[in-house]
Each structure stands twice: as C-alpha cells, then as structure tokens.
Write a structure and sequence with these properties.
Elements (H helix, E strand, L loop, with lengths): L8 E4 L8 E3 L4 H19 L12
Antiparallel strand pairs: 1-2
Length: about 60
C-alpha cells in the first residue's frame, strides 16, 4: 500500500490480505481522477481469483 502515497490519502487499512484506503480533497475533479486511477491499480495490484473447488474444503 506504500505505492499509494498521494497527499490526498488520509487513511490506509492495515489488515492482512485486505486493501483499502480513504482519500479526501476539496477538489471534486482530483478525487474523481484518483478514484479512477486507483480502481485500475487496485485490480492490477491486489485482485486474485481462485476457482471454486468441486467440494467443500472443510
């Protein structure tokens, strides 16, 4: 999460296997630009897909 270091980032989720942050800006356009950028970056940096198995694991 250290790569998300824009000054508008005011909080980061500190939980293993999770990613989240809060941004704030007085400028709506800046907030929108960051959110659009972060959605793509989050997907590339953190998204993982594991296919469902044929039976329950426990």
């Amino acid at each position: 999460m250290d790569a998300y270091n824009d000054p508008e980032v005011v909080w980061r989720l500190k939980k293993q296997f999770h990613a989240g942050l809060v941004i704030t800006s007085p400028k709506y356009d800046r907030t929108t630009k960051l959110l659009n950028s972060y959605v793509e970056r989050f997907y590339n940096d953190f998204f993982h897909f594991v296919p469902m198995g044929n039976k329950a694991s426990n």
